[in-house]
Amino acid sequence: MATATAGPAFAFSAVTIRGNSSARLSGFDFSYSTIPQLSPFKSSSPHLAFSPRGSSHFVRKNIFQASIDGVDSLGDADNIPTPIVLIDQGSDPSATIVHVSFGDRLGALIDTMKALKDLGLDVAKGTVTTEGSVIETKFFITRLSTGRKVEDPDLLERIRLTIINNLLKYHPESSARLAMGEAFGIQAPVKKLDRDIETHIHVKDAGPKRSLLCVETEDRPGLLLEIVKIMADVNVTMESAEIDTEGLIAKDKFHVSYRGASLNDSLSQVLTNCLRYYLRKSETDEDSY
Hints:
With about 290 residues, this protein is an alpha+beta fold. It contains 5 helices and 14 strands.
């Protein structure tokens, strides 16, 4: 996969991405070999890299641009890819890693980066890669106040919702694939989940000092906070999390412990039963949003 070559640096004054128009990016220095012509949903020259002035870097291995004029036709919902937002709090000791993909439609996400900064976060570095027809953007983020990874579940949930809100805003067609498109998008999801099979909860051994909790359920705002609260109610500690939003479904994994040890069978069953009860109760709540 190609990387950028050195060249003259340019600074642009504002962020404007509309349909086929060019992009002006505030607060970023560009080094380039060629500046590509941007067009909706298409790849262009792979020779571009940029970095926020004064600190971190963002490496673009291929550059893509999305149409975000807010009035695009949704087209056939069956042909719209599944949006994926994955927050990995455990893989890097010094940063929280955020993966975002939306098939071949993902844009530069400069507005998403700005929204993360508005939450008091620093985008330490990032990459844009492609695998087949799927474009994935990966951010490494830390708290501006501490320079450390994000630990607060409330802030992790705000990060997730901020990214999803940006997907709904700049890729309005994604609302047909996201659970939150029901309330906040321009079109509710066409396909609904089967209420009888959508929630799956498992607790597995992950060594003598911690267990792995896997939760798969219907996505909704505040889901992470619900799960963490239920853990706290039964005195289970969340050590790290992988928060994976795939369209309508949340597939979350948590490393958990009880007083510095893994969960025994009895506590695992208690936690599973509590989660199942509260999550199913929320699923049947008419005002779940």
